[in-house]
Every structure is written in C-alpha cells, then in structure tokens.
Amino acid sequence: MSRFEHEIGQQSLSKGKTVPAATQTMIRSAPFAHPPAGDVQGFYERGTARFTGIPYARAERFEAPHPLDRWDDVLVATRPAPACPQNPSPAIENMFHARVEELGFSEDCQNLSITAPEDAAEGDDLPVMVWIHGGSNICGAGDMHGTNPTALVTEQNVVVVNVTYRLGILGYLNIEGHPANRGLLDQAEALRWVRRNIAAFGGNPENITVFGQSAGADAIQHLLSLPESLFDRAILQSPPAGIVLGRESMTAKMLKLGADLNQDTPISDILALEKKILKSVLGYGVKTGMAFGVQHGAEPVPPAAMLPIAWQKKSHVALMVGHTQYETGFFTQTLGIADALQPLGKTGSRIQEKLIESTTRSVYAAGIEEFTRNQQEAGAPVTRYELSWHGSGELGAVHGIDVPLLFEEPGIENLPIIDGATAQEVHRAGVLLRNIWADFARGLDVSTQREEGIISFI
C-alpha cells in the first residue's frame, strides 16, 4: 500500500469541496495528506500522487491576496486549478496544442497543484520544484495542457508544485487606490504556502527551487528582489531581461486607458479593454511583447535603479539562467513574419536569420549576461546555459521549446514547436533536461553535464 494511502471520504465531490469527517464513507483508494492548511485528498496518476486545485490564497478584485484560514474538513483536490480569465492565445494553441479554456476560468484563481511520488510521505524531505508558467503575463495557467509534471516527478523523485496566478489587467495594471503587481503578490503568497505546507507531501521546505519560463522567469527575477527569502534556488528559462526596463511611457498610456475600471466592471469588458490596450501600445516595439509587466517602485518591488542592489542581497540563492539558441524564431513564426518573407527566397531567409539573431540577443541574451554578471560579482553561484535542441524541421530551438521537454506527455512529438522530432528523440532530450533541472534542485553542479546538440553551459 502506498505511504500516501489513508482512510478518506467520498470521492465524488467537486474540486475545493470538503468532506465532514463524521460523514465520510471510508475507502482506501486515494492519496491523502495532512498539511497545516488542512487535510487534502488527491488522486493517483502514472506513479504519482496528485493534489490539484488547492487554494493558497484569495483576493477581492484588484486587491492583494490574503492567506486562507485552515479548513477543518477534507479538501477534495482532484480537479485542475481554474485559469485566470484571459483572452485566447492562438500562438499557444497552435504551437503547444493547449486550450486554457478547458480548465474553466475564475477570478478566484489563486490555486496550486502538487505532484509527488506515489510512495512519498512526510519526512522524506524530497527536493521541491515550484513551476511558474509563462505567457507574457496575459495567458496560460498552472495546470494547462502540456505542464503535467508526472515524468519529472517519477524519473527524478522530486515534488513539483504548479502555480496559477492573476494575469493581465487583473494581475498587473496599476488601478488607482489598489495595490499594483497583484500577480507577483499571488506568486509570493503561493511560495509562502509551499514553505508552510509542503513537508506533508514529502517535500523539503528548506530546499525549494522555483523554475519558470519567459514571463515565469521574469517573475522569478522580480521575486528575487524582495526582502523575504521565498526560495533557495532558481532556474530562469528565457527571461526577457532586455525589455523589462524603460517602460514608463508605455505603462503610463496603459494606466490612462484603464482609469475607469472598478470592482463592478464586467469581466467581458475587462478582457475587451485588455485587447484594446495591447493594440494601442504596439508603437513601443519589442517591449509590447510583455506589456503587462511588473511595476517597478510599486510595492513590493524596488525602483528599477535599485534592482541590482536588491538582487545582490540574495547572493545565497543559487541560479541557473539561460535561453534557447533561436528564441525569437517563435515570434517570427507565430506573428506571420516568416510567411511574409518567404516570397523573397534566400534573401528573405537571410533577413529572418539576422532578425532572429539580433532580437534573441537584445531581448534575452544581453540582459541575461548583465543579470548573471551582477549576481556573480556578489558571490552568488550562477550557471548559464544555452539550449540548442530542436526537431529536424525549419523552426529550430525557439522560445518555449524547453517546456514540452520538461513536461513530457504522450503525443508530444506531434506538437508544431518540435516539428520533425520523433518520440524517441524527444524522450532522450527530455530525460537529459529533466535530470539536469532536478540535479540542480538537489544542489549538484550541473555545468559538466554537456550533451552535444542539446544544451551547453557558458
């Protein structure tokens, strides 16, 4: 019998419901944990014990999140966490075959999901890896298709937490009279919850590695600037470090367009306004790739000029930071630039190559170099990498290709983002990457784990 198995109550309740202990129908078929937050029932899946859609906080619209009181009965955590309300993202749907609306939407989206080895138990002190999803702070969710961590958990014997947080206007537009950076505040509250509760799921609360891609990596970079120590290690995958500064005029325009928003504005109007705002700031160039970003100088983030100093105060946090070889090839593809250049033949191909090379450098590589140099000067242990693996198609190692490798699921070889790769090729690269990520979480030196054509360390 699994060490997670326990006498529990009826399983037919929906996510978030509780089962009064006195009325439970006793059965022995599901995982059960006893964190300080309250007892939780989950489910077994492919060698793991999963607990999905656990609330870590709640917040009124445009307000800061607040921790929840302990629940007294059994929380049934068997459905995915709902996504923050958002507009569709054709790029994510087309390249990753992920439709976030399948999760359902809720403004009460401050939920997390925990995946542990099926035989894990309190006291095992397994490394904890907390995933913060990307999506330009306007789309995505912690439990979206393509981020199931069962392969990572079963292969590497770690505990993985997927976090869902507020996005777009709901999470990042500074509404007068309300706190800014609400999405970042959500993430910080989730990490506090993990510190307090993860031991009950077999995790080590003193060994938490936060990892995230794109906007998720940007979030980690800003969480690192907070005075509180929310995590012990961090993996930043493709942080868009070159476009997070010098945003004041763009942000001012966005705030002006959202001046009339209030607690009663229909969510449909908020999402329509979000589209309008994104369209209105296109003239600001590549910065609009993440228009809804962290507001520097607004609680709890220091002013932009103070960020390097704040980061250096966290020199005890080990970092692994990197990017893919052809990051912006993702955007030349999804924005139609590649198709527009195709009639130009070889000339168009050369233009596209130069464009990808220059923007990968300016948006990702240069900013990463500056950030990691700043941390190294403070004595922080830093590992830099470049991911070069890709399928045999024309797309190359583009932005986001690391995500399906880390979260390998059946049918992964059919995703357009890894065009031309067989299931065996994807699995081989995925196993390598998952091993490196987990070894880093275990505190090991991963810089010697080189594999030609997949990843290199700088």
Descriptive labels:
458 residues, alpha/beta, ten-stranded mixed beta sheet, four-stranded mixed beta sheet, 13 helices, 14 strands
Textual characterization of the structure:
The chain has a 10-stranded mixed sheet, sandwiched between helices. It has a 4-stranded mixed sheet with strand order 1-6-3-2, with no helix packed on it. The longest helix has 32 residues, at 346-377. The N and C termini lie far apart (46 Å). Helix 2 packs across helix 13. The model is unreliable at 5-15 and 21-27 (pLDDT under 50). The chain contains 13 helices and 14 strands. The chain is α/β, with parallel strands linked by helices and 458 residues long.
How is this fold's topology laid out?
Blueprint: E1 18-19, E2 32-33, E3 40-41, E4 43-45, E5 48-55, E6 74-76, H1 90-96, E7 111-117, E8 126-132, H2 150-156, E9 159-163, H3 168-172, H4 182-197, E10 203-213, H5 215-223, E11 233-237, H6 248-257, H7 267-280, H8 307-312, E12 318-324, H9 329-334, H10 337-341, H11 346-377, E13 382-387, H12 402-406, H13 423-441, E14 455-457
Parallel strand pairs: 3-6, 8-9, 8-10, 10-11, 11-12, 12-13
Antiparallel strand pairs: 1-6, 2-3, 4-5, 5-7, 7-9, 13-14
For the sheet with most strands, the description reads: 10 strands, mixed
Number of strands: 14
* Beta strand %: 15-25%
Overall shape: it is globular
Q: What are the secondary-structure elements, in order, as H or E?
A: EEEEEEHEEHEHHEHEHHHEHHHEHHE
Strands ordered across the widest β-sheet: 4-5-7-9-8-10-11-12-13-14
Averaging pLDDT over every residue, what do you get?
A: 91
Q: Which regions are unreliable across 5 or more consecutive residues at pLDDT < 50?
A: 5-15, 21-27
Structural class by helix and strand composition: alpha/beta
Tally of helical segments? 13
Helix content: 25-40%
Straight-line distance between termini = 46 Å
What's the quaternary structure here? Answer: single chain
Radius of gyration over alpha carbons? 21 Å
